Amino acid sequence: MPDAALDLPSWAIWGNRNGWIIATFLLLALVALLALTYVGGGNTGRTALSLEPANLERLQLPARDEQLDRMVPATTPGDGGALLAGATAQVVERPGLLEDFLGQGGRADPASVEPILATVRDATGRESLTLFRDPAAVLVYPRNDTRQELRAIKNLGKALLHAGLLRETRGDLEAATADYEAAFLLGRRLFQQRLVEEQLHYGVMLMREASEGLASVRESAGGDSTVPRAVAKALQTWQAERLEPMRQVFLVEDAAVTGVHVGDYIALAEASEEPVWRIESVLTLGRHRFNAARRPDQVAAEAEVFRLAQEASDPHVRAAAQQARDLDLPGHRMVRFGRY
C-alpha cells in the first residue's frame, strides 16, 4: 500500500496555507505603509519651533548698546576694515602664525604675535569695522576649504584672549586690558554683522569671555568689576536659554532629527526677522534636498530653495539660496558638522 503520509495536497509541502496568506497580507501592508511614509501626503508641517513668535523676532543682546559702549568704547575715527583684512590675509596665508602661539599654552610669548595683534587692536578701536570684503564668502556651506576669512577672524579673537590672559598672569594689566577690549569689540562686530550661526555663536562667546577677562583685570587692579561681570553673566544665560536651543536645530547631522523641522525651516526662511535663522534654514533646506527621509520633504525643500534663489528680496538670503540650489550630492557629503 502507498504511504498515506505522502498523499497530501500540494500546498502542504510549503506549510500552512492560511499562514502564508496572512504573511503575504502583512508584507503587502508593510510595503504600503513604507510607500505612504516616503511618498505619501504633503511635506512635514510646522512645530512649536516656528510657531513660537519669539523665534521669528530679530535677536537682541541682553545688555543695552549704551551700556556696552560705555564699558568698551570704540572712538578712533574711520573704518578698520582694511586693517583687519590685512591681518586676516596673513592668517589665511600662514596658518601656523597663530596656531603655534595658541598651541603653546602658558609657555607662549605674546611678543611673538604682537605685530598682528597690534593691527587688530587698531582695527577694532575704529568707530566702524567692516568684517568681510565680500559677505558672499560667508554664505556658503562650511567645508574645509570655505569660510577661511571667518576662520581667520575667529583665530585672531582666540589669540587676543590668550594674549590677554598671559599678560594678566604676568602682571601687565594695561596690556591685558587692551587685548580683552579688542576681543570684546571684535565679538560685538561679529554679532552686529552676523549672517551665519558660526559667526553669531563665536561673536557672543568672544564678548562673554572678554568680559570675564576685563572683570578679572579690574579686580586685580583693585577696581570695580561689576559691569563686566554682569555683562558676562547675562551673555552666558542668554546664550544658553535663547541661542543654544535654536543652534542645535541647525547643527544636528542626523536627518531623522532635522526631518521633523522641514516645515519650520520653510517658515523661518520665509518669515523670520533674524537673518541668521533665515540663512541657516535656507542652507539646511539645501541639504534636505538629498537627505530628508520623506520624498514630499525633499520636493518641498527643493521648491523652496529654487524659489528663494530667484525671488528673495534680501540679497544675503538670495545668495544662500543659490548655494543651496547649486549644492550637489558630493558637495553635500563634504559639509562639516560640529565645526565650532
SSE blueprint:
Blueprint: H1 17-39, H2 48-51, H3 65-71, E1 76-79, H4 81-93, H5 96-103, H6 114-124, E2 126-128, H7 148-169, H8 173-192, H9 197-220, H10 226-251, H11 255-258, H12 262-271, H13 275-291, H14 295-311, H15 315-326, H16 329-333
Parallel strand pairs: 1-2
Helix pairs in contact: 4-6, 4-7, 5-7, 6-8, 7-8, 7-9, 8-9, 9-10, 12-13, 13-14, 13-15, 14-15
Major sheet size, sense and barrel closure = 2 strands, parallel
Number of helices: 16
Strand order of the largest sheet: 1-2
Radius of gyration based on Cα positions: 28 Å
- H and E string: HHHEHHHEHHHHHHHHHH
Number of DSSP strand runs: 2
Helix content: 55-70%
Low-confidence stretches: 1-6, 31-39
Global shape: elongated
**Gap between N and C termini:** 84 Å
Structural class: mainly alpha
Beta-strand proportion: under 5%
User: What is the mean pLDDT?
Assistant: 88
Architecture overview:
This protein is mainly α and 340 residues long. The chain is 66% helix and 2% strand. The protein has helices spanning 17-39, 48-51, 65-71, 81-93, 96-103, 114-124, 148-169, 173-192, 197-220, 226-251, 255-258, 262-271, 275-291, 295-311, 315-326, 329-333, and strands at 76-79, 126-128. The model is unreliable at 1-6 and 31-39 (pLDDT under 50).
